[in-house]
Amino acid sequence: MPEIEIEINLESGEMETEIKGIAGPACEKTAEAIKKVFGNPARDERTREYNIQPQIKRQIKGK
């Protein structure tokens, strides 16, 4: 299940966001939407989860 964690340091005003359960381009779109609302985070980096390819289950049925 996707999870978005937003942490704002009240003293410095810096924001950190962690997006879990969303990989690749969908994660990038989610991050861009968050940036439009909250502004740019203190740092922006991709995690290993970003590079996970979605698993597509192929099934061929014969008659």
What does this structure look like?
With 63 residues, the protein is α+β, with helices and mostly antiparallel strands. It has one domain (3-51). The chain is built from one helix and two strands. A two-stranded antiparallel ribbon has the order 1-2. β1 (3-8) and β2 (15-20) form a beta hairpin. The longest helix has 15 residues, at 24-38. The protein is elongated, with a radius of gyration of 16 Å. The model has no long low-confidence stretch (mean pLDDT 84).
Number of helices: 1
What's the shape? Answer: elongated
Order of helices and strands: EEH
Secondary structure class reads alpha+beta
Main sheet overview: 2 strands, antiparallel
What is the topological layout?
Blueprint: E1 3-8, E2 15-20, H1 24-38
Antiparallel strand pairs: 1-2
What labels would you give this structure?
63 residues; alpha+beta; two-stranded antiparallel ribbon
Quick take:
With 63 residues, this protein is α+β, with helices and mostly antiparallel strands. Helix content is 24%, strand content 19%.
